[in-house]
Design goal:
This protein has 2 helices and 6 strands, in the order H-E-E-E-E-E-E-H. It is α+β, with helices and mostly antiparallel strands. The protein has one domain: PRC-barrel domain (SH3 type barrels). A hairpin with a 7-residue loop joins strand 3 and strand 4.
């Protein structure tokens, strides 16, 4: 058994063991007493933050890390983050 406070902030790795973010929240179905998903926050130090929703089917294992059975690009909403990152890079002045 794990406390919610132990779960929040835990690093999330995709199936290639690349860190994609940290657990920021849990989605629950109170009537059924089940967790229906986890929310992952990407981006650090105030940089562009994106929240991704992970379904239980995308989770392979929970231990010291939350290990997913999908790559970041396969997560719904991750493609929007990549597009935003590319746009930000394009709009950045380079010296």
């Amino acid at each position: 058994m794990m406390k919610v406070t132990e779960f929040l902030g835990r690093k999330v790795l995709d199936k290639k063991a690349i860190e994609i973010g940290k657990v920021s929240d849990l989605m629950i179905e109170p009537a059924k007493s089940v967790i229906t998903g986890i929310q992952i926050s990407t981006g650090e130090f105030g940089l562009r933050r994106t929240d991704l929703l992970i379904s239980p089917a995308e989770i392979q294992e929970i231990g010291d890390y939350v290990l997913l059975n999908v790559e970041k690009a396969e997560i719904k909403g991750a493609d929007e983050e990549s597009s935003a990152e590319k746009e930000q890079e394009t709009n950045t002045l380079k010296f």
